[in-house]
């Protein structure tokens, strides 16, 4: 049976109370994701990659590959500069990664030629790997519209894209500029149904790091033409509640992981904990999703 690729889990990164990387906790998290969605995006935004050293990113990639295998890991190697991204790419590929993702360069602006040069250098460093672009203009400061991206994808041999922020709701527009086999993922995990209807491959979901079941169940139901509309509505409601509670919040996702019995650890970046009421709601949802009252 083919491994599902509709729901990709964007993993958090656990740190010890002193701020050190907790590799054992990461392994436990990755093992859980490997047993559920089977698709791991490592060291991305949800994984606090700006706060990780290159060595730490490589350790996380190696650990993920050990837990989920080459077909189950997308290694994020994006950086502010091509030199660093290429160095990370070579190290990730040497470790066994065959699917890599790169956020567009950030902090300084980049024009179309500079953006093409950035991805071309990564492509040359990993000619046999699947290369995914990662568009997140609200974080990178760089907007790449669908037409521009279609040209970039063709010139740099890209295999897919993750659309986050504003582009996450524009799957159809990006899809129209790309070949049929190109994989378009949205970071808006609440809108899985819309993503698939627009021809997208699926969603990259931070919420699934704690609660994969709602997204996997909805994905399976959407792929089944015989699913009763009432069941679809109920499954979408659970996804809505999950995303509504966890949202784009690393702190809430980590609290949910802890409620599931996963070692979430602390954070290095400016990540706040949920307030008491929200924490209680997250804990109740954990019990509902896992089928363990009071979990």
Average pLDDT value?
96
Helix content: 40-55%
CATH class placement of the domain at 7-211: Alpha Beta
How are the strands of the largest sheet arranged?
A: 1-2-3-4-5-6-7-8
Question: Under the CATH scheme, which architecture of the domain at 7-211 would be assigned?
Answer: Alpha-Beta Barrel
Question: Superfamily at the CATH H level of the domain at 7-211?
Answer: Aldolase class I
List the uncertain runs.
none
Reading the helices and strands in chain order gives EHEHEHEHEHHEHEHEHHHH
Structural description of this entry:
The chain has 295 residues and is an alpha/beta fold. The chain has a domain of 205 residues: Aldolase class I (TIM Barrel), CATH 3.20.20.70. Helix content is 46%, strand content 12%. An 8-stranded parallel barrel has the order 1-2-3-4-5-6-7-8, surrounded by 5 helices. Helix 2 runs parallel beside helix 3. The radius of gyration is 18 Å and the shape is globular. Keywords: Lyase. This is Dihydrodipicolinate synthase. It comes from Streptomyces himastatinicus ATCC 53653.
